Amino acid sequence: MLANEFVNKIIGHIRTVESEERESIRQAAEWIADSIAQDGLVHLFGCGHSHLLAEDFFYRAGGMVPVNPILETSVMLHEGAVKSSKIERMAGYAEHILDNYTVTPGEVIIVISNSGINSLPVEMAQAAKAKGLKVIALCSSAYYGDETRHPSGKRLRDIADLVIDNHMPYGDALVEIPSSSVKMASGSTVIGSVILNMVMTSAAEKLVERGIEPPVYISGNIPGGFERNQAYIDKYRKRIKHL
Q1: Residue 94 in domain
Q2: Could you give the 3-state DSSP secondary structure of residue 41?
Q3: CA angle 183, 46, 167 (to 5 degrees)
């Protein structure tokens, strides 16, 4: 079954990431632990489907509390998928988006872009660095040889302080359809979620090693969950825009 082929390929890619990206994930976790230990935030940004990962790690049970998703509606799909793709390729927009959020030097931003060649993710990395943030790129090495769409000639990986390779194939889709020239079943969202969970849990581990209680939401549907989470919300509401 093609369904089993997809599962097997995803598992294989997870194992590849676990093996090949161990050091990058360790370093990302170290930077995030440093930021949280100093009462800083972790910022997440992506366009199109990549923004799903920014939402996935924001305000959810089992998630790190000081996560600030940069949710620009013009590059989400619900306001027009084609429009989103066009805006992602535009230059000169990222700085205006970032100015709407509270960021502090020394904090970390993870910019998610499978190809890493479109203008908006590149410029978001540039704008974040200009404000003193450490920039982590989550992208695929399959596109490293592709020409960037940004006027600077730089790709996301050229700007970032650290790159985590999701090891997705060119075109993202994983499963070949028999008697057809097309492939289906994109893997970048699944792999991206796995990678970010690896990073965040490793950061929590490093905080514990320093004697710091990791700030983590718990389900509001279990006893004491709402009260615990409300204390975090009260602390971060003025700094995390979408709370």
Answers
A1: yes
A2: coil
A3: 45
The CATH code of the domain that includes 105 is 3.40.50.10490
> 19 in a domain, yes or no?
yes
Q: What is the DSSP string of 62-84?
A: TSBSSEEE---GGGSSTT-HHHH
Q: How far apart are CA 217 and CA 236, in angstroms?
A: 12
Q: Which contiguous run of DSSP H or E holds residue 93?
A: none
Distance CA 76, CA 79 (A): 6
DSSP β-bridge partners for residue 134:
108
DSSP assignment letter at 108: E
**What is the residue range of 72's domain?**
2-236
Query: Is 241 part of a structural domain of the chain?
Result: no
Asked if 95 and 65 count as a contact pair (C-beta separation under 8 A), the reply is no
Q: How far is CA 129 from the centre of its chain?
A: 16
Residue 214 within any structural domain of the chain:
yes
Predicted confidence at residue 87, as pLDDT, reads 59
Sign of CA dihedral 240, 214, 124, 131: positive
The pTM for the full model equals 0.93
CA distance 13 to 56: 20
- End-to-end alpha-carbon separation of the chain, Å? 43
Q: Tens of pLDDT along 155-177?
A: 899 999 999 999 999 998 999 99
The residue with tokens 């970390």 is: 108
Number of domains in the chain: 1
| CA distance linking residue 214 with residue 65, whole number of Å | 9
